[in-house]
Amino acid sequence: MKTLTTSTQPNTMRACFTSLLAVTSLASAAPSMEDFYQREEIPLPEGEVMEGASIAIIDDKKVALATRRGDVWICDGAFGDDLSKVTWTKFAHGLHEPLGMSYKDGWFTFTQRPDVSRMRDSNGDGRADYFETIAAPWGISGDYHEYAFGTPPDKEGNVWVVLCLTGSFNANSPWRGWCFRITPDGKSIPTCSGIRSPGGIGFNMEGDVFYCDNQGTWNGSSSLKHLKPGGFVGNPNGNKFWEQAPNMGPKPVDPKSGSRIEIERKRIPQLIPTSVWLPHGKLGQSPTGIIPDQTKGAFGPFAGQVLVGEQTHSQVQRVFLEKVNDVYQGAAFPFLGGYRSGIVPLRLADDGSLFVGTTNRGWGARGGLPFSFERTRWTGKTPFEIHEMRITKDGFELTFTGEIDPKTAGDKASYSMNSWTYVYQSGYGSPEVDKTSQAIESVTVGADRKSVRLTVTNRQAGHCHHLKSSGVRSKAGGELWHQDAYYTINEFPK
Questions:
Q1: Is CATH 2.40.37.10 what the domain over 385-488 is classified as, yes or no?
Q2: Is residue 410 over pLDDT 70?
Q3: How many CB atoms lie within 10 A of CB 150?
Q4: Is the pTM of this model over 0.85?
């Protein structure tokens, strides 16, 4: 090989070498959140305790933040480029833990511990002065855990509310462990039973309603569950009120402690299986708010999917949902992290601004602060990720956010899968049980170079399937931002 000396082509060689290093570095550098999403803290009023409970978008300048302690603040400038210029105005105080809020036509509708109410500023002085209770069908005591989480109005104007059990264990107050629909004219409709300790409630893009339940009694791990009218979602302790809801149909029999949800589904027709498991410790441990990405791409490539907050780990998960045989299931993915305290409410504006309210709630959370109010925006750079994970008759189909390298994405060795389920029991939580391994028998790369079909053996109904795609690379040689996906199987395609 001929040696080029410094007297012949030094600049050319150095330029080529530098370019090579840059390309290699770009391809090998591990992606980080800062590449794709910008997280910013919004300054808060000095001396105020601003533990986030719910958020409402007012217009393209203002956002309302309701606090756990019952204040409602209006933030002006929350959409601006210079967040140091935001101003805050206290709109209301004295609410009772408002864990749900929306705004329309001058009215704030909110769900608080004892009721669903609404308020407005009738004289234009910037302060709420008219309050009206819409409905209060349930009971409360002094118990710390008797939360009530509510949605914005659905397509019919109904507010959906989920009610935590007393102490997260018992139904010592009326209708604890239930979901209600509150109509615009104040009618209260018992809708679902079986709730334990919700952390949030919201919609998918189709308008169906889901809530997050936390690990505990009859909940082996935290999860995302579909609230289907007339259904039972797993915890029987509130079923003593079933006879007071003739619209619900026959009362379900009690589940057998120590069983599995997949087994009990065959015994209990009303039992709605967990839509998506959020494995404890692997993907957080205290899921909270639920919102659909309705921004049509303003928040990145995941439009139409569901975002789920996480309190303990101070992060946001991403969930792809699909219906198989009329039953919801799907995949959960790690997504955003690094927030300064535990996320409870989150709200996406149409321009792609994601607002989160946080609190450690006395339990502790990652991030180092007792509370914060934060905004996240997409940088415009698309992360290389698994976009969707769909079940097929013989395995799964993966689509990606960008072109894949056919060699690595088509290699069986780039993937691994294992699965487990949880004991369905009256005791607290569950270890991962009935563990199995799945073999990736073949991989077919799609003609679009943005999808693969995996042929997979030994898939298990009722199990959470952990797919790790550690070997997959993009066309440019970059690795996946997140390599892990957790798919819950309730049904197989017919």
A1: no
A2: yes
A3: 25
A4: yes
How crowded is residue 141: how many other Cβ atoms within 10 Å of its Cβ? 12
Position 1 scores a pLDDT of 32
Confidence grade of residue 31 (pLDDT, cut at 50, 70, 90): very high
Q: Where are the domains of the chain?
A: 34-378, 385-488
Compute the distance between CA of residue 221 and CA of residue 202 in angstroms, rounded to an integer.
20
Can you tell me the distance from the alpha carbon of 110 to that of 128, in angstroms, rounded to the nearest whole number? Answer: 13
100-127 per-residue burial string, b: 16 or more CB within 10 A, e: under 16: bbbbeeeebbbbbbebbbbbbbeeeeee
| pLDDT > 70? residue 478 | yes
Distance of CA 84 to the CA centre of its chain: 29
Nearest to 307 by CA among 388, 202, 236: 202
Mean pLDDT of the chain: 94
Q: How far apart are CA 99 and CA 191, in angstroms?
A: 19
Residues 300-325: tens digit of each pLDDT: 999 999 999 999 999 999 999 999 99
- Which pLDDT score, from 0 to 100, does residue 205 have? 97
State how far the alpha carbon of 302 is from the alpha carbons of 116, 132, 294, in Å: 32, 38, 9
- Count of CA atoms in the C-beta half-sphere (13 A) of 162: 31
Q: Say what the pLDDT of residue 361 is.
A: 84
- What pLDDT does 422 receive? 98
Per the CB < 8 A criterion, the answer to whether 27 and 477 are in contact is yes
DSSP state of 247: G
- At residue 329, the pLDDT reads 98
Which pLDDT value is given to residue 30? 87
In the chain, the N- to C-terminal Cα span, in Å, equals 63
Amino acid at 144: Y
The closest alpha carbon to 235, from 207, 216, 259, belongs to: 216
CATH class of 34-378: mainly beta
Closest CA to 63 of 377, 349, 307: 349
| Helix or strand run (H / E) with residue 400 | strand 395-400
